[in-house]
Write a structure and sequence with these properties.
194 residues, Growth Hormone, Chain: A
């Protein structure tokens, strides 16, 4: 929300939306884990090359985090949360389908940037919502991140066990994330401003 618009203190809708976003972050980030062996096989990577590739997730996150904080302070959490979520939704199907090391590197950097940006914005949002509520809520938010981290790989594993290709499983994750993001938007995600 731009700084020149009137603000209202975050309430129950923002609390629910923040919980959903924490779940989305855990779900989306962990959904990549069951797809790693497929990427390794497609790109014919040895263990060392795979290790270097996986460093790109952290590199993308670290590179994007400072900008995410600045953007959240300037424009509010909502825009950063939505753009970051869409970034890793864009990258996940690429990670499930690309077979070249260079393409996987670029996709994993984008995925990491989305994950890192979302991490910053959702935690800023959580602090704002927690302070406004006057209650300790952060552990509950992070509990939902952990739950998402369990459900995401489980969902992908079920889809793969049912015969879905890695790309189809990735699109299933994207559909789930977009649905959850729409639910969060209905609860006014990011209306609280830094």
């Amino acid at each position: 929300m731009p700084a020149n618009q009137p603000q209202r203190p975050p309430g129950r809708p923002e609390q629910i939306a923040t919980r959903i976003v924490f779940f989305i972050a855990g779900f989306g980030m962990a959904a990549w884990a069951p797809l790693v062996p497929f990427a390794k096989a497609r790109a014919q990577l040895d263990d060392g090359a795979l290790g270097l590739l996986l460093l790109c997730l952290g590199a993308g996150s670290i590179a994007a985090m400072p900008a995410a904080g600045i953007l959240a302070a300037r424009w509010g959490c909502r825009i950063v949360i939505v753009v970051a979520t869409l970034l890793f939704c864009l990258a996940l199907p690429l990670l499930a389908g690309l077979s070249g090391f260079a393409g996987l590197t670029a996709a994993l950097l984008v995925f990491g940037a989305g994950v890192g940006s979302l991490d910053v914005a959702m935690n800023i949002q959580a602090v704002i919502v927690e302070r406004a509520s006057g209650r300790t809520m952060m552990s509950g938010f992070h509990g939902l991140f952990s739950l998402g981290g369990i459900v995401g790989p489980g969902f992908v594993a079920i889809l793969l066990a049912l015969g879905a290709s890695p790309a189809q499983a990735a699109w299933g994750v994207v559909a789930g994330i977009v649905l959850a993001l729409v639910c969060a938007a209905r609860f006014q995600i990011g209306r609280a401003h830094v």
